[in-house]
Amino acid sequence: MQELKQMNGAAAAAGGSEVSNVSKSTAAAKTTAAACSKPPPSRIQYYLNSGSKKHVFVGLLLVSAITCAPWFLLTSGSKHQNHADYMDQAEKARQSRLSSSAAAQSEAK
What we know:
With 109 residues, the protein is an all-alpha fold. It contains 5 helices and no strands. The longest helix has 26 residues, at 83-108. The radius of gyration is 38 Å and the shape is elongated. The protein starts with a helix and ends with a helix. The model has no long low-confidence stretch (mean pLDDT 75).
């Protein structure tokens, strides 16, 4: 292990670092070429990635409006029934069915 470290150190002192310099320069050339070919960010991406307080605030308002609008439209209609009201309505319907079937049976006799 120590021999490898010594060999790497000797290669670096003798000019072996040229390989790493070449790879660094080609990597830098690739990143600059990629940056030049990449289109500029759109306006929406700019606002999304800006981190400005007013952009964050407007984003929160938009998300809350999008999520609250369907909830508001669904709950603004008729009054919601509690369980007791539902059971009373079901009992009335059951009684009307039973009375109509009893009337039908007495007429059939």
